[in-house]
Amino acid sequence: MTTTATGLRSLVALDVPNPPRALRFRLAAADTATLNRREFLIWLRNPAFIFFTIVQPVMFVLLFRYVFGGAISVRVPGGYVDFLMPGIVAQSAAFASFATAISLARQLQRGVIDRFRAMPMARSAVLLGRLTADTVRLVVTLLVILGVGYAVGFRFRDGAVPALVMMLLGVALGVTICTISAYAGLTIKDEEAVSSFGLVWLFPLTFVSSAFVTVSSMPGWLQAFAKNQPVTIVIDEMRSLALGGPLALHAWQSAVWLVGICAVFVPLAVRAYRRAT
Hints:
This protein is 80% helix and 0% strand. By secondary structure, it is mainly alpha-helical.
């Protein structure tokens, strides 16, 4: 009996070879698309989530444009609204990563990821599906913000191509911070704790930057951090693209920061996902 069972196990192992790499990629892409569809259906059935995701940055645009804008002096073409909008786009892209961390932590708490693991699906599809769905949501949010910005007086000063590159850079910033949020959500695993953690590090990173005021207006001891942190560098590049200005310095610095952060946190997020499940 033992010999027969051993023979059957060997036969099963021989009859189920590893699929070719190209087939594995196609299957992983199909699994990712399925999880994308799942996220989109959740949003369609809960439109309040998308509504409040968009309302918050719109409120920031109106608040800084009409409440604080008159008290903040900047020397850029078009005045404060043209200075403000690249910062709002970057801030909104960063804050959009909250949803990634909270969703992954919620799925861990409720056992959803454990159920995904039990299914015959690519493990990479869970993270890729989450990130790609959040990227689509981010693009929609930024387009709405840009429309509101145009309604309150913002204008691109350097043509359509730099404007498109500015928006793509904002999306790249959002996706990059999503990798950090994915790692945080999978590591902390608690929805409320993840929300608090996001406020602790994202608010200083976005407000202690050139998003809303010039760095030169800050105290000297704070300027060293504000000038050299990644959000400021990316915002300065986005502002140069929007208004016309020198691009070379902040372009390569932005690329180094974004690629470097992804190189660190993508493997960390993958490792946290494997340990979490």
